[in-house]
Amino acid sequence: GAVVSQHPSRVICKSGTSVKIECRSLDFQATTMFWYRQFPKQSLMLMATSNEGSKATYEQGVEKDKFLINHASLTLSTLTVTSAHPEDSSFYICSAPEEPSGGERPDTQYFGPGTRLTVL
Amino acid sequence: GEDVEQSLFLSVREGDSSVINCTYTDSSSTYLYWYKQEPGAGLQLLTYIFSNMDMKQDQRLTVLLNKKDKHLSLRIADTQTGDSAIYFCAESYAGNMLTFGGGTRLMVKP
Q: What is the DSSP letter of A64?
């Protein structure tokens, strides 16, 4: 089946630095990718929708200048956490839907394995 | 906005059945999903149900949907220790964006 990878799987950084997280669809093209954030013992919150060839769409309350999203190609979206602070520490997960099936089943979402960010 | 709620915790003995419940508010939901998240890992789609269905069975998993009450449940038969994880229900409307519940932590005792 389709696979979505994320890199790195874990990152520890100092406060004030920027961190880039990559999300790749390995054997399919994804014009859209989604970025979620998960706080410890909490659910996933949609942060933004990454669109290939256009600007990302951010959810209310998510700072677009803080969380930069670039959908560089049909298989790669990057999330850059700029000037990271300890409150940005979280588990970040991306997902990519397969192309619309047009049938009576949902478009399958493939989730990446997640990236755990720890900001010291 | 949409709201999806789940109970936080469920503990069962190995071999028993587990029932995880979920309620949602968006009546326009088209699909409802159950995802499994093991410690430190991403999400694994377990099953989904189309909103015009009442029940779906897939091996040990049974999904029941009461659209009138906006209530979704996941039953795991013969629960095993490997089923210990966090289970998220989610809903979507004809598209790809998912709204997740808070997750139910299932603990299976030997």
A: T
